[in-house]
Specification:
alpha/beta; Rossmann fold; seven-stranded mixed sheet; six-stranded parallel sheet; disordered N terminus; transferase; alpha-1,6-mannosyl-glycoprotein 6-beta-N-acetylglucosaminyltransferase; transmembrane; golgi apparatus; GT18_cat
Length: 605
């Protein structure tokens, strides 16, 4: 029964139902006209008690939607609420979900220990328990669930690794979780009325936060209808490759040829959460790799085979065209592969390679603990495996891309909402780990490649894992995001990271803020842009402005080289660390960061 319109028919028979002409609700008359003509177009209107009378239209437009003023004869003393069912568990029946369950159980002890350590460091500081919906859109049947059939055949697992760790982290932080892997569950948890999505959700959103992905975001748009705009500040989008502001702003993207299949959601770009900290405009969510105890580290050091290499490539197609440098590697090392096959050895894998087939995680770890080298072929980009190999004491050898790969020159990135230049298979490993654990060379240069193999064989390394990819590091980061990232507000909350961390730079002509901050050993911080979008910032950098204007452009605030015209940003959603344009010098808000926890500044903890 409609909770809003109980007894509406009885009340309307004795009440005035003239359409009000209230200047505070200018759209009310036109919306009533629309309802008169189209109230039968979606069953959700009947669900809310609309029966074709003007009274029912006014009740709906004042209490379900917000286009008409509250009616004096209605009881407004209580706010209807939507009940949700008890929390669902990570489901059964799908191999992808079974994989996630196994991973969560395998890491349970590490998560528990990390939670205790973090709690002690935070001095058991009180944390508000949040009501959180986790909707894993890419695993729903409606999105095709292409991952489940591939789990047992060597398909990509990075997304499932990350989602497993997000679920585990939110749980051990003590939040109230609901988990959805189908559109029906999503409808039930959100309290979606029946119909075609024209009606909004009722009452308050029953969640403080919603974690989803691009598939889930599209499904939420279809199910929530016009309510998505009202509630989108609660959403966090898990986004492997990142979304830049120019692609996120729908109107701007359309007008300036930045529109793609994945962007244009008009979110605050910090609501997009990436697998690696490669895009400062977004937030770094990450995942975790398993950490060895001291006993396992000693055993690993003793068992390392200096002449043993494992190839990063589970699918036969990844091995095509790699014969030349594999032949060089074979002169010095025994090569092992983990390529999936059913009955016949894949012809793409050379005969001198010892192929183990697809290995369970524990057996793969044992293989990596013996190997000295983990070698990438250039694809997949930015996966979790290199970090897991380095954590097991391997050196990662990867190809340098010349020129860098991007949406402009490489099919894989085409259509993704980013212009990022990818300089190697794993830029994070190259930039934040580096030698001796990571070597990045030109595989087309035989001499350079051979020298790198020699360097690997004579270099001794211990297992290494950056703190941000440990359970404790991820918990610390996610806890800070939940506490400080507040995008649903009428008045701006206190800035986080704190302004004490800000360092303002003037970029060189045609250089992005990402690059300008990086040169100084800093990180561009998008949260600081509102505080430098003013004339005083130009003055502080000793920039003389012949003129000062505010425009909508993703590289502003900036100063033109000729004739020294200064520009402020008119659209806050377009504040961009990544934006770059010739003949402009950008104002760049940078900050310091903790080594091993790039999402946090020195004053953040």
């Amino acid at each position: 029964m409609c909770v809003f319109c109980h007894h509406a028919a009885r009340e309307s028979s004795t009440s005035q139902c003239d359409v009000p002409k209230d200047p505070h609700y200018p759209d009310c008359p036109s919306k009533v006209d629309w309802m008169r003509a189209r109230w039968t177009s979606d069953p959700c209107y009947s669900f809310y008690g609309v029966d074709g009378s003007d009274c029912s239209f006014l009740v709906y437009l004042s209490e379900v939607e917000w286009f008409c003023p509250p009616l004096a004869w209605r009881n407004h003393s209580s706010t209807p609420s939507v009940r949700t069912t008890p929390s669902s568990q990570v489901g059964t029946g799908k191999e992808s979900l079974s994989f996630m369950r196994r991973r969560i159980r395998r890491l349970a002890v590490q998560w528990s220990a990390a939670a205790r350590r973090l709690d002690n460091r935070l001095c058991s500081r009180w944390r508000e328990q949040k009501r959180i919906l986790v909707h894993v859109g890419f695993l729903t049947e409606e999105s095709g669930d292409v991952f489940s059939p591939k789990v047992l055949k060597g398909g990509p697992l990075g997304e499932m690794v990350q989602w497993s760790d997000i679920l585990a982290a939110l749980y051990v932080l003590g939040h109230d979780l609901k988990i959805s892997v189908s559109v029906k569950e999503l409808q039930r948890f959100l309290g979606v009325p029946p119909g075609r999505g024209n009606c909004p959700l009722t009452g308050r959103l029953p969640f403080d936060l919603i974690y989803t992905d691009y598939h889930g975001l599209q499904q939420m748009k279809q199910q929530m209808g016009i309510s998505l705009k009202k509630h989108k500040c609660h959403i966090r989008v898990i986004d492997s490759f990142g979304t830049e502001p120019a692609y996120n702003h729908e109107e701007y993207a359309t007008q300036h040829n930045y529109r793609t299949n994945w962007g244009y959601w008009n979110l605050n770009c910090r609501q997009f959460m990436t697998m690696f900290p490669h895009t400062p405009d977004n937030s770094f969510m990450g995942f975790v790799a398993e950490v060895m105890n001291e006993t396992d580290k000693r055993i690993t050091r003793l068992n390392k085979v200096d002449s043993m290499a494992v190839v990063y490539g589970k699918e036969p197609s990844m091995w095509k065209g790699k014969e030349k440098f594999l032949a060089i590697l074979h002169r010095y090392m025994e090569i092992h592969g983990t390529v999936y096959y059913e009955a016949q050895r894949p012809p793409e894998v050379p005969a001198f390679v010892k192929n183990h087939g697809l290995l369970p995680q524990q057996e793969l770890q044992q293989l990596l603990r013996k190997a000295k080298l983990f070698i990438g072929f250039g694809f997949p980009y930015e996966g979790p495996a290199p970090l897991e190999a380095i954590a097991n004491g391997c050196i990662f050898l990867q190809p340098k891309f010349q020129p860098s790969h991007s949406s402009l020159n490489h099919e894989f990135f085409r259509g993704k909402p980013t212009s990022r230049q990818v300089s190697s298979q794993h830029p994070y490993a190259q930039q934040y780990i580096g030698r001796p654990h990571v070597l990045t060379v030109d595989f087309n240069d035989s001499r350079q490649f051979e020298d790198a193999v020699h360097e690997v064989m004579r270099t001794q390394v211990d297992p290494f894992l950056p703190y941000e990819y440990t359970c404790e590091g991820m918990l610390e980061r996610l806890n800070a995001y939940i506490e400080f990232f507040i995008f649903c507000h009428k008045q701006p909350p206190a800035c986080w990271p704190p302004l004490s961390a800000m360092q303002l730079l003037l970029a060189q002509e045609g250089v992005s803020c990402v690059g300008s901050c990086q040169v100084e050993g800093l990180i561009c911080e998008p949260a600081f842009f509102p505080f430098i979008n003013n004339p005083e910032a130009f003055t502080g950098l000793r920039v003389h402005c012949e003129a000062l204007e505010a425009e909508v452009n993703h590289i502003f605030p900036a100063v033109s080289v000729e004739p020294g015209e200064c520009f402020l940003q008119k659209e806050p959603l377009l504040y961009s660390c990544a934006g770059v344009q010739a003949k402009h010098r950008r104002l760049c808000p940078c900050r310091d960061f903790l080594r091993g926890q790039v999402a946090m500044c020195k004053d953040c903890v």
